[in-house]
Protein 1
Amino acid sequence: MKRLAPSILSADFSQLGKQIQLIEEGGADVIHVDVMDGHFVPNISFGAPVMKSLLGKTRLPFDVHLMIERPDDYIGDFVTDQTEYIVVHQEACTHLHRTIQLIKSYGIKAGVALNPATSPDTLNYIFEDLDLVLIMSVNPGFGGQKFIPAALKKAQELKKMKEARNPALCIEIDGGVTLSNVKEVMDAGVDMFVAGSAVFGAPDIPQRVKEFQRVLKVEA
Ligand code: DX5
Ligand code: ZN
């Protein structure tokens, strides 16, 4: 099943609870939580208390994207009953195998994000341990950037690896996904679609979520 994960990075933070209700009303599947530390990426977003303020305000699961250095020190802060995935960056982890095991030790699904210049081959020796691979289709740090087309090739490559070695893997894409390119991204083998500005920048947020879902929920 293809899933839509709106990123609250592009939401109106002054009305976060209401904005979450709007995406839920439209039929979003997952809430993408973009955590930035101003070190790994050149921007600061928000931390675990903001995510936790949404507990009970929505039934949607959280997909936590940690764009931070030393993620091991903070993973525990993002563990909640609603946390489905915790995703760390390959480039931020010196001991990636250990970090993956740490996430799993909390009973949470583990994901690794790849920056645009990072090859899926870097995951070769942990591939079977992963629940999710996130392909960055922009350089992380900001919402509203333009989709980098090489991400499609990376998705196709990962799809082949998935079919051969880890069929349950979720392939996620993040950055610059819009109604204009989502079909092409889907055809490249992606399972979960992050959309920030394309959802929260829409004049009618529930309607925009529905428009995405009309593309994603069509059986192939
Ligand atoms: C980028 C973040 C993305 C971003 C997506 O660093 O990881 O999740 O918010 O926003 P859009 O869809 O606007 O590119
Ligand atoms: Zn993200």
Protein 2
Amino acid sequence: MRKLSPVLPVLVCLTMLSSCGDSKAASPASDPNEKSSGSLFAMDTYITVTAYGENRDAGIKAATDEISRLEKLWSVTDTASEIYAVDHADGSGTAVSPETADLLSLAIDMHGKTSGALDISLYPVLCAWGFTTGEYRVPDDSEIDELMTHTGVDRIALDGSTVTIPADMEIDLGAVAKGCSGDMAVEALKAQGVSCALLDLGGNIQTLGETKPDGTKWKIGIRDPFGDGSAATLETGEGAVITSGGYERYFEQDGVIYKHILDPKTGRPAESGLVSATAIGKEGRYCDALSTSLYVLGEEGAEKLWRESGDFDMVLISESGEFIITEGIEDSFELTVPAELRVLHR
Ligand code: AMP
Ligand code: MG
């Protein structure tokens, strides 16, 4: 079995591996290969937006502004956010913006589609483990059991743009917010006339344009959970490549490693046999919901969901170091470390 790599907060799990042009080099403003990048720290992660072509600077500003705006809506700790208002409404209804209502609707829908693997009501349990603050601890069984009585996606009522949760509950969109922000940042880029861009939201990659301006596909690295850098590459067109990995946040106590993605059935870190799950598809929000779910579901559950859904591809990495990929990416996927590879066919 290969060893889990240490947490590297700045090193994202997916990285853009190739580029063309350089924003600092002088060249005509109309050169479509010319690119610029803008970065920000938001949603607890480093985000970089790289855009090509003449409207790129306006596009990057619009995209980063949009991500900052969405963070203010969805932060669970910002007392001015909509999610904070929902969580502290003491059981009354809270009016939210259409984007928050849409994302909540997706999260509730995906809870059903993933047999409950995606659960935005786990926030109190995540807090008890310290995953929200970094003050890690292992709650005892009775504490977890008690906290689990305050969860339940079926207790969230979404009526148009009004959200109501019971007073003993709190929700958190952390498992889906980055993907949705990526989608909306892409829309902001498009509105500024940008047709080619790559967004890296803490390792979640989203692309605008089927190819880079030079006509080549985007080449995305899949982070090696057992070492530094990437373990595989994937060539993609426009869409999202989003990974959930236990290595992104974990702590060790008494020789046991506790990872940040919880199994909603137990309130404890998911022990699904996977160390990483990547969802590849058209929409960031959907792939973000999926990657967290696939990680929780494990190989068998993930394969079942893939067969039922038919609208995404995936890369699963097992604890033993095996890579399991789906047939839609077979020709564009390449291992860059020695490992076993299995392809799932329909
Ligand atoms: P992601 O990186 O998108 O997989 O999201 C993981 C984050 O979502 C964790 O750091 C937690 O804050 C939260 N989380 C953990 N387990 C779950 C779960 N089963 N469903 C929804 N959110 C979760
Ligand atoms: Mg996710």
Protein 3
Amino acid sequence: MKKQSVAPSLKFDTKWSYAPAPESADHIQLKSQYELFINGKFVVPSSGKYFDTINPATEKKIALVADANAADVDKAVKAARSAYDKTWSKMPAAERGKYLFRIARILQEKAREIAIIESIDGGKPIRESRDMDIPLAAAHFFYYAGWADKMEYAFPGRTVKPLGVAGQIIPWNFPLLMAAWKIAPALAAGNTVVLKPAETTPLTALKLAEIFQEADLPPGVVNIITGAGATGAAIVNHPGIDKIAFTGSTDVGKIIQKALAGTDKKYTLELGGKAANIIFEDAAIDQAVEGIVNGIFFNQGHVCCAGSRLFVQENIADLVLRKLKDRIETLIVGDPLDKNTDIGAINSKEQLNKIKSLVKAGINEGGECWQSSCAVPSKGYWYRPTLFTKVAQSSSIVQKEIFGPVLAIQTFRTVEEVIEKANNTPFGLSGGIWTDKGSKIFKVSSKLRAGVIWANTYNKFDPTSPFGGYKESGMGREGGLHGLQPYIDFN
Ligand code: ADP
């Protein structure tokens, strides 16, 4: 291996002074209080309780949101069952498809408003919610709309039938996109739904409920109920639910799996990750550095498939590290609604504290920590992009999912070594390979135990492509034809 020479760090002014370019939020329509969406209407929770959803960039309250209890969950499940029995399962599949197309089109019309709400409620940069989350959510409705009346082509030679009522529980990192991932295939296959968004990001799911009203979706076909873990548990344990689709932490995934053991409910779990991004000496290094930055920093690391471990071939390690630091110094952390922002707010105070404590543990274990010198706003929840070097395979920073903008860097010499190291984690959701050699891509990707492997790119999504994990990253696939399968039974 020939060691590449490393030019000194570029001495450009790293505090790029872009003029602020804030997205105007004047036109968004938000209520001060949100009720539960059950049977096509917004209804007051029988719990009588509400919680605040706050803007993590300002710590200000945005709205009050209903906190559903078990009685509310029961109402939602009954509404979904009745809609399934009387309307949705009886409707010709092509008609179901038309509703999905209509939802997709309305979503596109309202894309700008919903992107802004996503960024205000969750803290992610507007560039991401505008260019990725919302267009992809609409694309999922379009994609599954197309399958609704073509199930005999999706599963040739087999007769399929829907399962009934699906309970769906989603996290806060891609709130609307996760709702679309789950609702669109469920409805296309003829099921009805009770969905619970995460307690810190309920607003875009509630806007989606308004879109269902506008699309005249029959009452009860989708019910959106808000609340925290107890509400989610009430969905999981409700006897009227036929299938659970969950995306969230591995800890909660295990609780759900235990709760479902011995029942005949079907389930899919999309859980945590600790993805390895691998750069070989023959990679296009600038392109790889950009992909690595995109993979871990652009959504504050709030991505289960985030490339949070980096393996660099030893002879290019100094060069890659220097280029990474240079690039990271140019990243702008701040107002999620500013179009220049690269890294927005951490989703909640709890999440920020978790990141801080894992970074502290990494330092205590002997890791070398480097952080960008960028400024961060005084109010709100922020975390500077952070690199760790001199970490061992056993370091907590290498083994635990952090869900923040923190990258652990290790080196390797041979292909065999990096495969071994990359697979040495309880997770197996995703990975990335950067090399000029196609044969190396095939060799390494076939040996990595991860559900999704990107080559010379990262974090690319498409509704036609299945997504899901191995090991503690979960079971089942979402997206593509694979994503329809968990919502059907074969006759
Ligand atoms: P994250 O770490 O991404 O916040 P969680 O697993 O804590 O992931 O949360 C994901 C979703 O699961 C949220 O909607 C949350 O309210 C819900 N949830 C939390 N605890 C439970 C539980 N015991 N049963 C069902 N759902 C739960």
Protein 4
Amino acid sequence: MAKLQPVRGTRDLIGEDARAHLHVIDAARATAGTYGYRPIETPVFEFTEVFQRTLGETSDIVTKEMYTFQDKGGDSLTLRPEGTAGIARAVLSGGLQNELPLKWCYAGPMFRHERPQKGRLRQFHQIGVELIGVAEPIGDVEVIALAAATLDALGVLPATTLELNTLGDNESRGAYREALVSYLEQFRDRLSEDSKQRLARNPLRILDSKNNDDRAVIADAPSFSDYLTPDAQTFFDAVRGGLDDLGIAYQINPRLVRGLDYYCHTAFEFTTDQLGAQGTVLAGGRYDGLIEMMGGQPTPGVGWAAGIERLAMLIGPTSTGPRPISVIGIGPAGEKAALKVAQDLRQTGFTIELNYRGGLKRGLRRADKIGAAVAVFLGEDELARDGATVRNLDDGSQTDVSLAELKDHLAEYR
Ligand code: ATP
Ligand code: MG
């Protein structure tokens, strides 16, 4: 029999964790809404092809991290490791290429078979946005501004740094790749096994390596900026200009690359030094090649994704919303009345905890435990006068209130 434990790298969201999680999603959705980005939900699993083709056969995600399985019909399916490929698939299968630009935000679980540690799970959750169909640098500026606004809404923008780089166009990348490979070949022996493999297949990824030996070699590697075509340079200048106009501060990080094949031009990350090794909270970039790679018309795109767990850790405990009101029925008639009174108060927007059984003492103990602000007693005496007793649980003071006046009396606790 299966062990009665969560699978390694997965976790339950309970209490404050669940609340913090939803808080991040709500804030992200609301902020994205002000930029005109609408919600999209795509399935949690797709045909394996969707990821294999687009993420690149040599990416860490495809080679090591995907949860791939054969379903009962014999299809190879994969739990989505990220959101963008499925959304691009949705553009194509939904025939939405005539409706550009598409502006979407999403939130949901992602699955990667990685070594679990703080800030690194096997089922984790992301919020993200995609702007599809805008080739102009103003698109990059907008999604980065939206990222900053989202972090600001969550109160963590000051704890982060925006790091920015460009991967240029195809021509720039080709020239840079050549320069990078000839540099790295000199230090082949010092590279990790993974990076030796990448040298032939996808050398840019070596820049993204977290291995210390690799990092030492990378430190003196040639810089992308020296290999940009004039067009790519102009594009990057426009992105930087737009960010400057909006007063969004950034640092150029010439080593910043995205771990996936379909990125070009702008790459960015919001990082923090407050989460230890897992310091990237939000990452994104431009992916003009993606939809074409999937077999569609060339269609530009730019977007980002942020880890909800990492954001929640950065935010820390947040306020828990309105304190509840405990409605406590005493005796059979009181319990019957309490059910109705609770319903009535809930329908006018009060947060009500109803005691299900056990009378006054037990009701009060529970009210204390859940941090209720007031308790409303309904017993025989109260019913006889068509009223309730309202006890302020902070100072113990009690007031007799008629049922007709109850809502007004409790107004401050709504
Ligand atoms: P890393 O370099 O940390 O492995 P990545 O480049 O694989 O990150 P992306 O694919 O860009 O990450 O995902 C965007 C964000 O999603 C990350 O910045 C991070 O906040 C979050 N994230 C990625 N993988 C995980 C994971 N296994 N557990 C928790 N959060 C994750
Ligand atoms: Mg990763």
